[in-house]
Request: fold
Amino acid sequence: MTPQTKQKKPQVSLRQRALDYLAKREYSVIELSKKLATVAKQYELDATQIPEILEDFRKRNWVSDARFTEQIVHARKSKFGSARVANELREKGVSDDLIADALESIKINELENAKQVWRKKYAHAPQSREEWAKQARFLQSRGFGFEIIKKVINEQEDEA
Reply:
């Protein structure tokens, strides 16, 4: 193919790119806004359209922080504690009210989830303080609070 016969691809609009992103997964409004701003800069598109596009998408319920929050909670609650999920939601720009509601649903089964995460990683209760600390750090890195961690590990010690 010679340079003269090579056709230039048509420019994809910001609106279409936003729809393409939303077709793949849920986004928070702020996360989608940042992604569109990056794309606009990269492809030299008009970034002033972003608020208008997002407002239209909100009205049509194509982008929803509440739906995004539900999806994240559903995907993360069996592997992570409330602190880690809340932090991820904060990073994605979800409001504190939605995060508070999400944490309530996570905390209902948080102890059971922590036990499952612990069992998946460790076969036996800690035999020393160092091992106890290692297991506690693991659960803490997964976003579980210290009260939950103590209950999980001490319960394992009692069963042993």
In short: The chain has nine helices and no strands.
